[in-house]
Amino acid sequence: MQILPFYAVCDESGSMSADIDTLNKALFDLHQEISTNPTIADKTRFGLIGFSTDAHELQPLVDLSDLDELPALEASGLTSFGNAFGLLRQAIDRDVQALKADGHDVYRPVVFFLSDGVPTDSDWDRPYQELLASSFRPHIIAFGIGQADRSVIARVATFKAFMQDEGTANPAVALREFAASLTRSIVRSVSGATEAGQGMSLQVDDHVPGFTSVSLDKL
């Protein structure tokens, strides 16, 4: 069977406090959407990493239909990227090897990365480059909300980058749209591949309501 490893890597810094409940609800909706659709659930495995000053794996890669609920993100600490990318590289390496050992074909992993601030660690580029240099180099779709820096979000993304629209007064609105886009992308991509009897081609909307697409061409 062909499996898509799919990771949400979400900022848990203290500045997320006002919006963390909305982000948890967004991830809950994603869980419900994927786990209740047998076609998608069979081909998707989901992992959740939270990060601030440290990084920790809240949910190791799993079939979402095996879970009643996801662990909750909690806001504390400062925005820090380096440990998140280091942990993500280790997790993907472990997960891809385990899936292959079980006889699965594995798609290139997809990472949805969300931050609401500028990283406080100046050396995060090294673990990020190590992640991209690995044999399982993931597609990274980066979302920035709140005080996130546009250029940083563009640097993180390898596939697409989005910034919360200036006209979106409440970041919670943008987070709900993030969840809707995230769900649509996975559902459409996996379902389309199944119906066509071919490999998955990742499909992500060029514009997400509440967000503006950030060009990666200049990087």
Task: Write out key terms for the chains shown.
single chain, eight-stranded mixed β-sheet, alpha/beta, globular, 219 residues, Rossmann fold, 8 strands
Description:
The protein has 219 residues and is of the alpha/beta class. The chain has one domain: Rossmann fold, CATH 3.40.50. 38% of the residues lie in helices and 22% in strands. It contains six helices and eight strands; from the N terminus they run βααββαββαβαβαβ. Strands 1, 2, 3, 4, 5, 6, 7 and 8 form an eight-stranded mixed beta sheet that branches. Strand 5, helix 4 and strand 6 form a beta-alpha-beta unit. Helix 3 packs parallel to helix 4. It is globular, with a radius of gyration of 16 Å. The N and C termini lie far apart (36 Å). The mean pLDDT is 89. It comes from Kitasatospora putterlickiae. This is VWA domain-containing protein.
Helix proportion: 25-40%
Radius of gyration: 16 Å
CATH topology: Rossmann fold
Number of strands: 8
Major sheet characteristics:
8 strands, mixed
- Termini gap: 36 Å
CATH architecture: 3-Layer(aba) Sandwich
Given as residue ranges, the uncertain stretches (5+ residues, pLDDT < 50) are none
- What would CATH call the homologous superfamily? von Willebrand factor, type A domain
Pairing-aware structural class of the strands and helices? alpha/beta
Number of domains: 1
Q: What is the overall pLDDT average?
A: 89
Mind telling me the CATH class? Alpha Beta
Using the alpha-carbon principal axes, give the shape.
globular
Count, helices: 6
Strand content: 15-25%
Protein name: VWA domain-containing protein
Domain VWFA: 5-190
